[in-house]
Each structure stands twice: as structure tokens, then as C-alpha cells.
Amino acid sequence: MVWRRWCSKAEPGIGKTTVWREGIARARCQGYRVLSCRAAPAEARLSFAALSDLLTPIEGAAFESLPVPQRRALDAALLRAEPQGAAPDPRAIGTGVVSLVSELCAEAPVLLALDDVQWLDLPSARTLEFALRRVERGSVAVLATIRKPEPASRPSVVSVIADDRVHSLGLGPLSLDALNRIVEEHLGRRLPRPLLVKIEIATGGNPFYALEIARALNAANVTSGHALPVPDDLRDLVGSRLRRLPRLTRDALLRVSALAVPTVALVDPKELAAAEEAGVARIRPDGRIEFAHPLFAGAIYAAASHERRRRLHQDLANRVSDVEERARHLTFAAEGTDGSIAAVLEEAAEHAHRRGAPEVAAELEEQAARRTPADMVEKRWERCLRAGRHHLKAGDLQRARQLAEEVLSATPPSRLRAQALHVIAEFCFANKLDDAIHFLEEALTCAGDDCGYAAQLEIALAVVLVATLDPARSDPHLSRAIELARIAGESALLAEATALSALARLFTGHGVDDEELRLALALEDADRAVPFQMRPSLNVAQVYEFTGRLEEARELFVALCERVTARGEETDLPWILVHLAVTSWLAGNFAVAEDEADAALQAATLTGQDIFVAFALLLRSMVRAIRGDLDGARVDGVEALGISERIRWAVGVSQSRYSLGYLSLSDGNPQTAVTTLEPVVASIEALGLYEWPTAMALPDAIEAFVATGELDRAQRLTDALAACGRKFDRPWALATSGRCRALVEAAAGHVETACTAAEQAIVDHQRLPMPLELARTQLVLGQLQRRRGERRVARETLERALATFEALGAPLWAEKTRAEIRRISIRRAPLQLTEGERRVAELAARGLTNRDIAAALFLSRRTVEANLARAYGKLDIRSRAELGAVMAERKAALVQASP
Q: 577 lies in a domain?
């Protein structure tokens, strides 16, 4: 991507639009495709007025090539087609703009030229902000002008471009010579220098002001010896020029100033001839009418009396076709409450909503509420709540909460009270999740006999309970939601409740019902507007992922990714990308997993979602550790832990600790791994649930406990993991618990039992599509086979593990395996113990202490310790428990070999 942004900031009349036009001309000469718009105050409250101007020149074929959700969203926003069905997501509109601009960039560099961006309507500004952050292909430049000072309500749309790609130009006063040339060019005569000096001093070098004074001088035939006709107010100066125009022309200009989109269809072009000749306004080739400078519009509108403006807006309300503009004119045409005007405003709000402009919809709905007569109080509350929901969609959560609280304070009927409480709960989703539970529970008591709405509340409450790690409490709510959805006959609601129920049941240790999952997918309405965490395909995909059905999970995640990308639902994208990365990680596609974690991190950072920033970091930490990048893994893990602790995300804290514990184990520091994983294991034991999503850290924790001698704890955890595997037939729990059992038995000296456990684990791995885990179990089995003296078999097993580690790109595990293979090559035969070593080993195997052995053999304790250490090395063991088993095997072998 090549971004360049030229930004002009200036006071009114300084000439920024002139400079802007010159910039456009030069860009065209350099081969740029120019998309331009000039914002105006009258358009600021409409939906997508600026965006429509910007995109209108683009050929229809470019729109037709867009993904269907993007094309439909843009068609609705730009009124290329009448909005139909559900309102488009505003992000789909922004994504459509990104796609259009990216396609244009493939043919030529593009210039986005924006004049007076401080007056951009909010939907256009929001869409352009979205697009300017995301255009990734080709060469794009932005040429923008901003009146100085800018409004403080929100930052400029072009401020999203990085400062290192910006050239800002503040337009200041012109020199005396420049003013002289401008006056001569526009008026056809030169002014005496003394008079020009006076004009420069009076105007501060502002060219617009200077030209207006020069015109006044010209009209009044004032010479340099007279005082300048400079009024206190610039509006008076402009007004005096306008007053010289014919009455019909001034009337036509007043109509132009009151219209958001003035065209020759609404204003007689013949009446504008004098204004065009005077350089006050011009008619564009497409029939649009524009003032030469916005000050003319403001001056002529302000000069009209209140009553005249009211009558004008009443007349325009009957002439304009756009429902939003009609509502605007009706608002200016009347004061006080009025049921008919409120109804039009409500209709306009719905129109803006269906175009994907929730900001405008919220404002219009609030105006409708204010205009609602006192005897229609329930209608007023309904409009307030609709405005609140539009504010939620637009991202103004605080205003949504305020409107809902305003309704609550008026003691509305139960159904409206439930809706108000629901709006406040949605505010809490993003601020204080625990509080949402209280509001949703109270809303349920007010829902009455509306089964469909009650089902929505039950599902929302269940989502919060699962998210706050209290899935057991969600069960009755989900059961009730399913029942209510069936009564209401709403299959989409039934799909959402069923899928969420399946996920919650997994977290409560009730297993998985495949029929439940199939039903949820079959009933899902992919086009239904619903919070992402309630989408059936997402929750079914997570169930598949958590139970090791990775291909099925990935298929659903890929389809979801394509859907949200096409619709521009980028807030939901990090959620999918992290789960895609998980499926790649588990399936052993580590390079892909790291790329997907990178993409998730970028998307989460862009959308400001700390929870997914942490999720992506901890996942990338795991992958980097496997791939041998220990430093990068440690940085990611520490950062993920810090974010998770800051936002109090308990799941993230546990999983970040897991990534760091795994890193320590991979780096050969089991004691550090135990310290890091201790709180994680404690939480798993407290929960008592050993499914993969809650207990993924357990196999590595058990390995660390074995390495540090905590065999009793390792045994207890292994038994719990195995019990879960048997109860629900989970290949992951069966395979990894088998490997853990082999480690525990081997540490206790039971090599045969350990081998049997490892061999069964290999069988269980055949149903588990996790090649890294299989190779790790093969490594353990190879070690045990070597200790059992099966050198050839051990080498074959270890070489299979090595081949997998190398193919997966897991260098640390590969090196551990090579070390085991080298040990087979140099291992001494078991019968090479010296007589002294043998006698010491036999007594030690019988349980005698070093002091007792020394006394029995008449040796020093130092000599006993030395002989025992050499025996351990020759027998390739590490503990007395192992020594007893090995010596018993040696004795049996000697007896069998004796004649």
C-alpha cells in the first residue's frame, strides 16, 4: 500500500478549495483516477451524501463484481436500489468501498479528493475512516481540505492515515503582489497600490474577503482616498453583494441554500443565470447546483426571516423525494410536538437504518421521540428505545444507556421495561459483564407472553453466564430458550439456543449430542442479524474444535471467515482467525497457524479488542515455542499474560500461563514449568472438567510434575484425564493420558507397565488428528523400548518420531529425539557392571541405604556412592525405584540363560 495524504487547513475564504481544485487537476495530469466530493453544511445530517458523490463516477461493472453482501450494502447506502430485507452492516459498506478502491488501484493510482471534510455526514465519514485504514493494494492518495479551526466533536476522517505519510499545509494570507494578481484576474482592472495596501490590511491577506471588498469598491466607484466599505460582519459583506442580484435570483439562491442536494429539478436554472454571471453559484453538468463558496449559502439563508424560511421548508418538504430530507424540512417547518411530523421522522429513521446509517437513524428517531405528543407517551418511549438500539449499532453505548434509563425512570409498561433493561445489559456487555446478568434476569420477569423475545433474553443471559465461566447456571436458561423458540415457531432462535446449549453442555461435563449439532446447523439463518457469539455455526465449530474434530471445525470456520469478510464484519474477524489458528496448530500446520495468529493480532489491534489481542499473542507464543523461536515465544506469552491480567480475563490468564509453562518445558526447565502451571492446574482441579478447552495444559503439567518427582500428583491428574476420556470417548484425553501414565510408571521403575500404556496411547492417537502429540508419544515409547533393551525397535520408533518432528518444523523436539537415538548407539551392554558395582546395585535394589551397604560390604560411603552412580549410568536409570525393576529383570534373564 502506498498512502499519501495532502491536507490543507485554513480559515474561511483563504482559498483552500482553489488549491484543492488545482491539486485535482495536477493529479489527473499524472494519471490518477480522481474520486471527489465537496461536503456542505446542509448535507451533514443526511445518510451517505458525501459517499454518493465520491462513488457515483465509478462504472456499474465495478459494483457488479463485488461480493454479494458488499454490493447489496452499497446499493442500499447509495440508493442504487431500494433497501430490502435486513439493514446492511455499516462495516459491509466500508468493506465494499475498500474493494472498489482496491480494484481501481489495479488500473491506475487513485486520488480521494475531499473538500471541507468537517462537514462530511457521519455515515460517509465513518465509512471513509474504515476504508482509509484498510486499503492494502495499489497506490492511493488523499487530498483533503479542513476549515480551521476544526470542530471538536470528532477527529478528522483523514487523521486515520499515519503521520509519516502526511504532508499538511496551512494556508495563510497572500502577499500584496498575489492579491493584486487575483483582483486583476477576477475584476479585469488593477487597483492603485495605496488602495490595495488598505485592502490587505483590512482583510489580513484573505483572498475571498479582498475580492468582496474590491467588488464593493468597484460597484460604489470608491477611490483610494475614501474609507473602505468593510462591515463588522463578513456575512454583511457577502450579503451586500447578494443584494445586488435580482429578486428572483435571490429567491432561487435561498432555495438552493436550504436544499441538501440542490438540482435543476427543484430550482429553475433560468433564475440562476445572474448568480452564475456574478460568480456566486454554478450549475454542474450533472444538474447539481453549488455555491462558489459556502459563505454565500450561509449569508443568504441567514438573511431570510424565520417565517420565510419556515414556509420555504414546508414547500420543499412537499417537493423532495428523499424521505430523510423531507423529514429534515418538516422539522424546520414546524415547532413543538406533532404526531404526523414524528411519524415522518420515524419513517426516515427506519430508512436510514435500512441504508446502514445507524448514526443518522438514531438522531432521527430521537427527534421523532421529541416531536411525539404528550398523549402518545408509549409511542415516545418506543422511539427512545429504537434510538437507543441504533446508538448501540453506531457504537455510542453511553447514549444508548442514557435513553434506556430515561424510559425506565418513567415507569413504562412491562414490555417496554424489558426492552430498556435489555439495552442497558448490552451496554454492560462491553463494560462490566457481571452487571449484564442482573439486568437480563430482571428483563425476563417483564417479558410477558412474548415467547420469541423471552427466548432472545434467555439466550443472551446464557451467553453471559458461559462467558463468565458459570456454564452450569446457563443450562436452565438454554432449556427454556429452546422451549420458547419452539412455541414461538422461530427456527432461527431455536438454532441459536440449540448450538449454544451444545457448547455449554461440553463445559459442564455432559458430553456432546451430534444430533443437536446437526439440528442447529440445519436451522441456522445465515442472514439473521444476531450477535456473533450467538451464531450457531460458530458454536458448533467450537464444539468440533474442542473435541478434536478439526476438519469439520475448520470447514465451518473458513465459511464463517468468508462470510464476515464479505460483509465487512471485521469486529468478528479476530474471533474466527484465532480459532482457525488453533485448528492449524493442533493439526501440525505451524507456519499457517502463525500466519493466522498474526492476522488475528492485526485485526484485533485494529478493532481495539484486547481479549483477542491476548488470545492471538498466547497462541502465537505456543506456535513459536514449537518452531524453536523461544525469545519470540516468551515475549508474546508475557505480553498476553499482562493484557489478560489487566482486563481480568481469567481464561486468558490460564492459557497465557500454559504457553509460558510449555515454553519452559520445551526449554528443559521443568521446575519453572511447574511453578508457572501450578495456578492453571489448581483451576482445572477446582472446575473438575477435563475436556480439552479447559484441561489443554494438563498433559504438559503432568510431564513437568514427573520430571520434578511429584509422582503422586501426576498419577492423580492422569487418572482424572483418563476417566474423562473413557466417559466421553475423547481420543485426546485417552491418548495424552496414556502417554502421561507411561511417564509416571517409568519414573516409578515399572518399565513394562509404562511400555504397555505408551503402546495403547499410540493406538488411541490413530483417532486424533494431532501429529505433534503422536510424535511426542512415540518419543516416550522409544525411550522405554531402549530402556527395555529393544535397541532396534526403539530406534525405529524414535526415527518415526524424528521424521514427524522434522516435517512439522519442531526443532527442539527433533533434537531431543536425535539425542535419544545417539544414546542407543553408545549404550553399554547391561552385563558390563563390575563385580563391585553389581553387589552395590543389588543391595540398593533391595532397599538398603548407602550407610547400610557400606557396613555390609566393608566399604566407605563415598565408595558406595561412586559405585552406585556408575551403575545408574550403565543401566541408564535415574532412581532407586527404577533400579529395583532393572535388577529384577537382569536376575530373571540370568536365570533363564543358565543351563
A: no
Degrees, nearest 5: CA angle 247-248-249 = 90
In a shared domain, residues 217 and 244: no
* Distance, CA of 111 to CA of 105 (rounded, Å): 10
For 438, list phi and psi in degrees, rounded to 5: -60, -45
pLDDT of 761 reads 96
Largest interatomic CA distance in the chain: 140
Contact 580, 595 (CB under 8 A): no
Give residue 690's identity as a one-letter amino acid code: Y
Strand (E) positions, 171-303? 281-283, 289-291
Residue 24 sits in the same domain as residue 133: yes
**What are the pLDDT digits (tens) for 567-598?**
767 778 888 999 999 999 999 999 999 999 99
Scored b (16 or more CB within 10 A) or e, 441-477 reads ebbbebbeeebebbbbbbbbbbbbbbbeeebebbbeb
Query: Omega into 358 within 30° of 0, i.e. cis?
Result: no
The C-alpha cell 429452546 sits at 482
The total number of residues shown for the chain amounts to: 899
CA distance 525 to 535: 9
Q: What phi, psi does 33 have (nearest 5°)?
A: -85, 120
Looking at residue 691, the DSSP 8-state letter turns out to be: S
Contacts of 90 (CB under 8 A, 6+ apart): 123, 126, 127, 130, 356, 357, 358, 393, 394, 568
Residue showing cell 486583476: 184
**Quick one: pLDDT band at residue 897, thresholds 50, 70, 90?**
low
Range of the domain at 242: 235-302
C-alpha cell at position 394? 453506531
Domain co-membership, 103 together with 162: yes
**Higher per-residue pLDDT: 698 or 648:** 698
Q: Identify the three-state secondary structure at position 404.
A: helix
Q: Are residues 34 and 165 in the same domain?
A: yes
Query: 140 in helix, strand or coil?
Result: strand
pLDDT (0 to 100) of residue 160: 60
CA distance linking residue 304 with residue 442, whole number of Å: 53
In 3D space, the residue among 788, 782, 787 whose CA is nearest the CA of residue 761 turns out to be 782
The full DSSP string for 182-208 is HHHHHHSSPPPHHHHHHHHHHHTT-HH
What is the bridge-based pairing of β-strands 33-38 and 281-283?
A: unpaired
Whole-number Å distance between alpha carbons of 206 and 748: 91
CA–CA distances in Å: residue 278 to residues 186, 261, 282, 304, 774:
10, 22, 10, 20, 84
DSSP assignment letter at 293:
S
pLDDT mean across residues, the chain: 85
Single-letter amino acid, residue 190: R
* pLDDT above 50: residue 1: no
- How far is the first Cα of the chain from the last one, in angstroms, to the nearest whole number? 84
Structural domain tally of the chain?
Answer: 7
